[in-house]
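Q: A reviewer asked whether we had any structural model of the full assembly, not just the individual parts. We don't, so I'm hoping you can provide one. Inputs are below.
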Amino acid sequence: MRTRTKVWWWVGGLLIFAYCLFPVAWIVSLSLKAPSDLDNGSFLPSAVSWQNYQLVLTGDASGLFLPALRNSVGICLIATAISVVLAALCAYAVARLDFPGKALVLGLALGVSMFPVISIVTPLFNIWRTIGLFDTWPGLIIPYLSITLPLSIWTLSAFFREIPWEMEQAAQVDGATTAQAFRKVIVPLAGPGVATTAIIAFFLAWNDFVYGISLTSTERARPVPAALAFFTGASQFEEPTGAISAAAVIVTVPVVVLVLLFQRQIVAGLTQGAVKG
Amino acid sequence: MAAITLSHVVKEYGDGYPAVNDVSLDIDDGEFVILVGPSGCGKSTLLRMVVGLEDITDGEITIDGDVVNDKAPRDRKLAMVFQNYALYPHLSVFENIAFPLRLDKGKYSEDEVRARVEKAADTLELREHLDRKPANLSGGQRQRVAMGRAIVRDARAFLFDEPLSNLDAKLRGQMRTEISRMQRRLGTTTLYVTHDQTEAMTLGDRVAVLKKGVLQQVASPRALYEQPVNLFVAGFIGSPPMNFLPGEVDGDVLRLPLTEVPLTDDLRARIGDRDLVIVGLRPEHLEDASTLDDDTRGTGVTFEADVDVIEWLGAELYAYVPFETHASVEKTLEELDRDLDGEGMRTQLVAALGSEARVRDGDTAELWFDPARLLVFDPETGENLTYDGESARRSDEESVEERRRTTERAHRRAEAARDPAA
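A: Here is a predicted structure for the entire assembly that you could use as a starting point for your response.
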């Protein structure tokens, strides 16, 4: 490539880079500004202050934040685990067998994931309140399954389809039952696929806001995205902006790190099956 | 070790299409039977029905006297080598071969497993690769690991599903002889599926030719070569394939596009009142007349041929002679070409001449053949009118005798190798 074209590519790349990361950078910088510093009119803090982080983690806002963090981690992990197990069973059947209703199952899964969450939240709120699931962990895990299952099924069935059927057939001829063939041959080979699906499902559940804010009322079950919204009303500080930014950074940074570490697997998982081979 | 019997086996798919149509086949204990045919003829389906990976629509499959129609693959005690090897990529070669032994928990102690795997590895010369993963092996080595996995258990029969089709030509030749040696030494009943007629001819004790799910002929390779029962078998066996020419009956002669052949009484009787037949002549039965002495020339028919293209291969020379075929047999021959997976664009005669032949592109050559070598087929049914059942039966018997002798010799060698002092 000629140098001039290269330069333009670099410039364009940097522009897009800046545009995408600018809000994130802003939040980081906000979180490092002392409360009095927030109006200083410049991008960078005049002096780096860890006050916001202290507030959020050990100070007055921690009563709101730490339980929310615990809820989020717990609920999302459980939802991911259940989702991956169920999706694995379904995806295995979808990838290997041809049964009546297969198209219906896949179509339903796709339809459920497309459905606007906001439209079912109100009726769900009513139902949950009636049967006592409101503001509980299961009360959130169940709707989260509806978010994570469809994508997990699609991703995992693409992974399973990549494993040639001859593997299980060879195992069966060698003397294995179907269960043994699944356990000894398919599970080790599908490991990376399951891990990738779990990561994707976890992110989907972690980022949810609508269910989190509508189906909870106390720190018993409120997840972090919802708790962040409550900083505005529940706190009595001059400008909770700093606290919110600090909380947002704490919540986002691990996710970003995970994605960076597993980016190759995640991209492979999302594009798996798109092209044969 | 077991005898396998297929009795009127039918496999029909959902839309009613019979992939396997009433196939009956008897495989003796220790016999090496090949299922051969063009793609789509049902040979792989038949094999998978024997091993239990496909359901049987109708008919019976018996292994060693037990009807196995409803038994799962694991209960049939067979070993199979797949076309793409189906090795377990997450296990080492040792673990791959040990896999079937480990499934039966408690049946084999760790030492026994090790002994068996090492013995199989020695048979196939895989000793130094035992700790490697399949991804790091070459095609031939992977093939041998797949075979090792099959021979390590005491299976009743071996089933091969086109095991050599993923290898290059040279490796294929080498692996063919390895498979042959292995089968002779172990003496296990073997059912082998291939679309390559070279493998069929060289490996099999008996060969079953299939076309569109229907069994055409089951016989020793020699009987198939010399006495094919119909057009399809004649065109399938032999490389280069048999030449088919239209023959018009005209009084005492049979008129072919390039020459005439006098009709013997026997031939006339077999042809009956047909006035058009298809005549088959193998390329290797044509010779360059100029290389023959006068006595030999006199025993056959000589004719002039316009040679269009020649291919010189060192040991042989192929001469291609285009000719005009008869309109009424053109359709039959084209259909036959398609059935044999061919895509011929013109009718041409192929002559496989020896390397001393002095024929060049564009030459008019003098070719010779012995009319006794001609095969005559009915143009409608494709039936071989010159089929000699007696001769076929004799070839089969000879083949059985030869197999017995080779197996004995292989056993004696194995004994000697085990116990050099004896």
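A: Points you may want to mention in the reply: Residues 415 and 421 of chain B are 10 Å apart (CA to CA). Chain B touches chain A at residues 51-53, 72-74, 78-80, 82, 84, 86, 88-90, 99-100, 103-104, 149, 153 (CB under 8 Å).
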